[in-house]
C-alpha cells in the first residue's frame, strides 16, 4: 500500500486499528461501527458521519458514510467514503442509501470526491443515480470500454465465500464536475489486483486515481 504513495486513502471494512496507525497518515478518521476509514496526508478541517436510515433486514450492522473537509493547497476538497448494503435483494435499499448520501453531501457537491464499495454494477440504479447528480465515474472517464472488475472470482479470498457473484466492478471513485479545475484527474486504474508475497491484499481490488 505504501508503494502507491496515496495522498488520500478511503477504506471499507477497516477494523484493524493497529494497521491504520501503521500506515502513518497525519489524518486518520474512522467510523468504527461500520468499518470505514479515511486517511490523508492533508489536514481535515472537519468531518461528519452519516448513518443511513435505509437499512437491510438481512444485516445487523449499520451502514454509514464518512465525510471530511480536506485542506488542499488549492482550496478545500470534501472527501467521502461509504459502503452500501451488499446482498442482491438489497438493490432498493442501496438506491435509498444513495439518495440519503446525495442529500447529505449536496452542500459540498461542487468539490466532492466520493469513494466506496457500492455493491452495484455500473448499469445498476444506484450508480445511475450518482451519475445523474453530476458526479463523474473516474474509471469510466478514462476507460469507457473496459470493465475494470474489482470483484474477481480468481481472487483466492473470494473463492471461500458462500455467496457467489459474477466478476464485476463494484468499487468506485466519483468526482464532481465542478472539482475538476481544483484536482484535475489525469488517470484512473485498478490496483492491488495481484498477490504480494503469496497473498492478495483484500477480497476486492482497489481503484486508484491520479490528480494534478
Could you please describe the fold and organization of this structure?
By secondary structure, the chain is α+β, with helices and mostly antiparallel strands. The protein has a single domain, classed as 4-Layer Sandwich (Deoxyribonuclease I, Chain A), CATH 3.60.10. It is built from 6 helices and 11 strands. The strands form 3 sheets. A 6-stranded mixed β-sheet has the order 4-5-6-7-9-8. Helix 2 runs parallel beside helix 3. It is globular.
Feature tags:
6 helices; alpha+beta; Deoxyribonuclease I, Chain A; 6-stranded mixed β-sheet; 32% strand; single chain; 212 residues
Spans of at least 5 consecutive residues with low confidence: none
Distance between the termini: 20 Å
Secondary-structure-derived class: alpha+beta
Radius of gyration: 16 Å
> In what order do the strands lie side by side in the largest sheet?
4-5-6-7-9-8
Give a quick account of the main beta sheet: strands, pairing sense, barrel closure: 6 strands, mixed
What fraction, in percent, of the residue positions are helical?
10-25%
Helix-strand pattern, N to C?
EHEEEEEHEHEHHEHEE
Output the CATH class name.
Alpha Beta
The count of β-strands is: 11
Quote the CATH topology.
Deoxyribonuclease I, Chain A
What's a quick, concise take on this entry?
This protein has 212 residues and is an alpha+beta fold. Helix content is 20%, strand content 32%. The chain has helices at 17-22, 91-105, 125-132, 138-142, 156-159, 180-183, and strands spanning 8-11, 27-31, 36-40, 44-51, 64-72, 75-83, 112-117, 135-137, 171-176, 185-191, 206-211.
